[in-house]
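Hi team, as promised in this morning's meeting, here are the two structures we talked about. I've kept the exact order from the run log so nobody has to guess. The first one is mostly here for context; it's the second one we should focus on when we meet again. Sequence first, then the predicted structure tokens.
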Amino acid sequence: MVIAQAMTPKFLENGSLLYGALPTGCYSCGPGQKLVLFVTGLCSQGCYYCPVSQKKMGVDVVYANELQVSSDQDVINEARLIDALGTGITGGNPSCVEDRVLHYIELLKTEFGPEHHIHLYTSDFENERFITDLARFGLDEIRFHLPPEEWKSISEHHILELARSAKKQGLATGFELPVPPGLESELHELAKILDANGVEFLNLNEFEISDTNWEALRTRGYEPGGDHTNAVKGSLETARAVLEGVQLKMSIHFCSSSFKDGVQLRNRICRRAENTKKPHELITKDGTFVKGVVECQNPEELRTFIIKEYDVPEELAIVDDQKERLEVAAWVLEELAPLLDFDCFITEEYPTADRLEVERLPL
């Protein structure tokens, strides 16, 4: 539940702001303790600013963090690898796959207990029975998304009925919206209406540029906020003006792009790194793995050779079947590379399921 209220906004990490109390569903996000469960890329709204990636947008796929899910166990395992205290269910629009959402709520609550906090981020939907089912299956918090072009008609919008119903059913109820630059007055009015209707919190997300929305944003005159950020110029200033100009019972939380990447994502990656590290890998301060890599035709044969010929400890040389290569502890490969007739590298990669490579340096 959202409780105590402050009358002036508080500055949080990396440009985030808070008026009132932080929504319960946000507490475990910052420390990286919340599983991100993407339940479908299906959505009928077609928001021009949607940042969902090309491989997910419009595709009915499920991801637990960066892992494409093929079984319930994948979801459980990924949650354990980050010691998750909760889950955020998102999409696409999760209400397109209602039964799937209910299944995962039940799965997670059964596996981790009722204290495992689950919030749902969803758009408008017609079936009010879904609210009843969500509460019955154990959802803790719901966050409604509404495109900016519909903010002015919020008083007559069906989504307010859904919000009132969710609150009656005992769900912590809020809205989560983007912050397009220059819409201070529209957001002010919207916040007042939501507050008057008993909505408990409003989450505002900094407008972000992605591979899938940058053209749409550019054609509408939006500009990047700098060389090293995904944020759109002016979004932070708009959010600050909104938080400094309200006096409501409802909490408002602005989450910056740099907080999502520099705090939330980084902490989650560090947690996964600690739980998945192998003896031949080094963890950097950012949670990435540094290791040596040898590209060769027969990695198993080469592994046997260097263990026998150069007394390399077995745990410091492993065959990566997925990438078809030999991995060797970086400090070992730096000495061995001149003796091997193969391409040798020091690589840095994320400890996530997709194992995205950040850098590769030849030896």
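And here is the second protein, the one for discussion:
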Amino acid sequence: MMLGFREILLILVVLIVVLYTRSFHLVGIRKSLGLAPTTPADEIRIGASWLSDMAKEQNIQPEEETRVQTILDNFRATGGLTFKRYKVFRLDSPEVNALALPGGHILLTRGLMTLPDTSADQLAGILAHEIAHVELGHCRKALIQKNRREALQLFLSLANRRPGTAASIVEHLAKLGISRESELEADDFAFQLLLKSRYSPIGLVQFLEKAKKMERIPEWLTFLSTHPGNNERIGRLRQKVGNQ
């Protein structure tokens, strides 16, 4: 079905509004859509903005666990990190999870931080993995993909008059390949960072084994997931440990 001039104009107007009323306004449309390179300073501003928005709806506080700052200091001392100041916050959620935002902002949930018998090596493994997402540009790429996906979803919804059909397919496919690849890359980066910082990479393996026991979906269904299964990650990391 052909769109008339007014409908095309409406789509363009809505796109511009959306682009300028979200995080896009922080760095401009070209950078937001990956048409121009972003700088670490750009990512820091975006991450701080996202954190501020999340804090309006969630209880988020600076992480006060002393081991966290000690680990970050050791990582920084090894050198080579693009972002020199990582900031860690605690999200008041019972879920066991960790999340990296652009610019070196990391969220650790209350559920994760209150797990019993979490060693320094395990905590270092968690932080190293999230830092890897930032250092490898996964957060930046995810941001660009999110922006492009939102623009495409809006266009498809308006063009097809059926929001949620084609748009949801685009979202699922966009998430699938990126996350599976980036999780494994982050494990590899974390492995090297842990070795350089004199933490045992087996700590990350131990944490993944804990997480595996709390999984709610069968391992055989992980090929449909946006993340590789814990069995896959554990096997790869144990092989790397064995090769050392």
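Starting points for discussion:
The CA atoms of residues 20 and 29 lie 8 Å apart.
The chain has one domain: 39-242.
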